[in-house]
Amino acid sequence: MNRIVVGAQWGDEGKAKITDLLAQDADLIIRYQGGCNAGHTVVADGKTYKFHLIPSGILYKNKTCFIGAGTVILPEAFEAEVNELIKEKIDVSGLKISPLASVTMPWHTEVDGFSENNTSKGKIGTTKKGIGPTYTDKAARIGIKVQDLFDEETLSEKLDVILPLKNKTLEKVYGLKTYTKEEVMALCKKYAQIFKPYVAFDWQEILESLKDKKILFEGAQGVMLDVDYGTYPYVTSSNPIGGGACTGSGFGPKSVDEVIGVAKAYVTRVGEGPFVTELTDETGDKIRKIGHEFGVTTGRPRRCGWFDAVTMRYSALVGGLTSVALTKADVFDTFEKIKVCTAYKDKRNGEIYKNYPTNVYIHKYLEPVYEVHDGWKEDITGIREYDMLPENCKKYLKRIEELINVPISIISVGPDREQTIIRKA
Ligand code: IMP
User: Fold this and answer.
1) How far apart, in whole angstroms, are the C-alpha atoms of residue 249 and residue 216?
2) Residue having the nearest C-alpha atom to atom 2 of ligand 1
3) What is the CA radius of gyration of the chain?
4) What would the pLDDT profile of 235-291 be if each residue is shown by its tens digit?
5) For residues 294 and 40, is the Cβ–Cβ distance under 8 A?
6) Nearest C-alpha neighbor of 265 from the set 290, 241, 233
7) Are residues 320 and 229 in the same domain?
8) Is the predicted pLDDT of residue 417 greater than 90, yes or no?
9) Which CATH number characterizes residue 279's domain?
10) Beta bridge partners of 216
């Protein structure tokens, strides 16, 4: 069974825990998009591991963990992450990087930081890891790929095209420092050293040999941050949707059996952008506090809100979800009432939206239409079987399934690997 795990909301849904769980059965775990903007926390045997780019499957022995062509890699961040794993005595011999992955250069992070710090209007609230500018250059065909770092002649030829353009923009548009070719060549040499033990120049053979094995495609961010289908322009610059797994990994659509969308029992978002069910009151604070809703990568407090079935139904559609893994259900253990958004209402004219309005500029006029559910007022963190869940919890889950048209296959009731309910089909 080959599976894709995607974030079904705005990222931070607890994908790492689900990926970690499913990685046990996989031979190959492949990360297909994004970069170190992601922050994935895995708690295994009481120990917490934080991942940004490296597939969390690395915690298991004898797995191939592949960082695919669709990703962008900040060399220093990769180095720090790999060193941390080595320090923890994790075997990284199965870690591979696609030579086709894009390299985040210093100018990418500088431009990302500049754009975020200097625009009061149009701010995206990025992680400032250079993600957008790296993807911009990739699409503009002036990016540097991992493989380029290993061929001086190629690199030199490329830099003759890239640097004059880059320097002009850096200086004239951003007022930032420019780079000499010697400087960049030296930097790339350093990057090559960082990547060398992991670059899979034989990636075609590896993919060929693993074609018939079990593959787990690991998405980062979430469907609503997808550059094509998300809340554009408040999105990341890649394709976290299920479809992105193919382009970013080199495997075709026929290699995929299941797409599991990970969603929280509520919603969080970091950065700017519309969020119709956002709670800016004490209920939002309560969710943030109980759910520990602070960014892994930036430490920013996450915006919190009620479960939004309108967004989720849309996400299930464009994300290609075959089932949902619902996380953090236990965060509601002490709640008297739990709300679910079933539609949006336009404050201007009372129009009701059952389908997700993709023009996010009108979202400021929308308010959520809620239905209210009774809480279960019981600690569910020790429950391991669906039937043992409190009735009100089962009612809540059943209603979500009805609203989003996709079954819930996994329910997470705590951060540990063990705190998981797998529903039998
Ligand atoms: P970027 O990916 O750093 O360019 O940021 C673009 C948007 O995606 C911002 O709203 C970020 O907060 C959001 N974002 C990027 N990565 C993550 C993630 O892993 N979790 C949640 N939000 C993210």
Assistant:
1) 11
2) 236
3) 22
4) 999 999 999 999 999 999 999 999 999 999 999 999 899 999 999 999 999 999 999
5) no
6) 290
7) no
8) no
9) 3.90.170.10
10) 3, 29
Catalytic annotation present for 373 = no
**Alpha carbon of 148 to ligand 1 centroid (Å):** 27
CB distance 267 to 222 below 8 Å? no
Of 77-81, 117-121, 310-314, 341-345, which gets the smallest average pLDDT?
Answer: 117-121
Q: Domain end: 217, 241, 259, which one?
A: 259
Between strands 47-51 and 40-44, the pairing is antiparallel
**Can 363 be counted among the known catalytic residues?**
no
- Ligand 1: atom nearest CA of 300 is 12
Q: Residue 270 CA: which ligand 1 atom is closest? A: 12
Residues in the chain: 425
Q: 355 and 221, same structural domain? A: no
* Closest to 63 measured CA to CA, from 99, 23, 32: 23
User: What is the number of alpha carbons within 13 Å of residue 395 lying toward its C-beta?
Assistant: 13
Residue among 275, 327, 386 at smallest CA distance from 21? 327
**81 neighbors 54 (Cβ within 8 angstroms):** yes
pTM here is 0.96
Burial label for 364, CB within 10 Å (0-12, 13-18, 19+), is exposed
Residue 328 pLDDT more than 80?
A: yes
CA of 68 to the centre of ligand 1 (A): 19
Same structural domain, 37 and 123: no
**Whose C-alpha lies nearest to ligand 1, atom 22?**
11
* Residue 130: CATH number of its domain: 1.10.300.10
* Both tokens assigned to 106: 């210093």
Amino acid at 419: Q
Per-chain mean pLDDT for the chain:
95
The one-character DSSP state at 70 is T
Is pLDDT larger for residue 285 or for residue 122? 285
For the chain, the first-to-last Cα distance in angstroms comes to: 15
In whole angstroms, what is the distance from residue 393 CA to residue 399 CA? 10
Q: Residue type for 244, please?
A: G
pLDDT score for 10? 97
Q: Could you tell me the distance, in angstroms and rounded to a whole number, from the CA of residue 270 to the centre of ligand 1?
A: 7
